[in-house]
Hints:
Shape: elongated
Structural class: mainly alpha
Radius of gyration: 29 Å
Number of strands: 0
Largest sheet: none
Distance between the termini: 84 Å
Number of helices: 4
Strand content: under 5%
Amino acid sequence: MEKHFTKIANWVAHMAGLPPTFAACCLIIVVWAVSGPLFGFSDTWQLVINTGTTIITFLMVFLIQNTQNRDGAAIQAKLDELIRVSRAHNHFIGIEHLTESEVEEIRAKCERAAKRHDQQIAATAAKKAVAQKRGQKKHAA
């Protein structure tokens, strides 16, 4: 059942994102609007478009969420594998299951570490520049 649903969800998500699908929806709206005078712009005429768009929107929300959940899980699995096989810290694997505040705490630690690293690189570059200037002055003398 799950594989069948995934196959249908992928197909519908793919079809919904195609330009011809958008064009068909625009055509439906134009036909509906043009038919207004035929039906005297009645409540039933308005109800047809409202009901149709509501049903489609309702179903698409679940389809899009399903697709996003699978995409997110697949990307997370790929990132976890990259972390696992690299020299990165393996304790980052699975952090997507932490609370938002716990993830924010980890992000803040990573940002502080990155700033320290940037400052070390800047200090090293400044020392090299000073050493090069001193070396040039000695050569000039």
